[in-house]
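Student:
Attend to each token:
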Amino acid sequence: MVRAIFTELAATPRGESDWEVCFADDCSDDGTYERLVKLAALFPFRLIRPPENLGRGAIRNLLAQEASASMLIFLDGDCRVQPGYFKAWDGLDPDIAWLGRVSYDNHPRSGFSRFLSRGSGVAKLRRAQAIPPAYFISQNFRISKAAFDKTGGFRTDLLGWGGEDTDLGCKLRRIGVPLRYHEEAEVRHPSVTGLEAYFARLFHFGRVNLPVLIADNPGLAAQFKLGYADGMRSLLFANPLAFRLSRALVTRFKGWPWPFAFYRYVIFNCYVRGFRQAPSR
């Protein structure tokens, strides 16, 4: 990722922006920090490491605090910038929060990666559409530091995976910052083949974090379509047999390009089943 960023920066004509590159290591213990230290001797980036693990929200808040620029671009550590990435961010309205495109590797082959690239979240919206907060994903986005600070940044009280970006999208909407899609700013994510682990995280998100988000942002219940799991509609949209069948198909035959509806059905049922078991309900 580091080499890809600086290779693309070197190929980018000097435009309206000078770039400051910051990496955060949230107290990793797998050798990542040591590799970053070596790379920092070769490439001009700032390496930030807190004295203790902060978690998904707080470490990104620290990055924003440490950055000196008036515009911030957040990029996940497992994403690789694509040609034209930095140039694509120039000239955009600074009063809008822009979500860039996240595409996925084709190898190893994964129908779920195809779905994430083309049929999920902002990937299925038309360019001019406003982005609902539930679709706000923080893998690759641009925002003014002033707007980020005004929201208070990412919340830090959620447990495990998921939700801090949705919450930030809600806070941006409350302060009047529009959310828009800018597909020219593209990054590439590794293919997603560990579907069982992914679906387990969705269940945990529905059980632990989604109730907290909805308590603070009631409109999210409609955006996550929770009404489809109530009453007679649940016989179709939250049917246990249909869920088990869909999940078995997409996890056993990972490379097959199943219809997007299969993946949507499994995802919906994972977080809804977690939500139904939430202790706070």
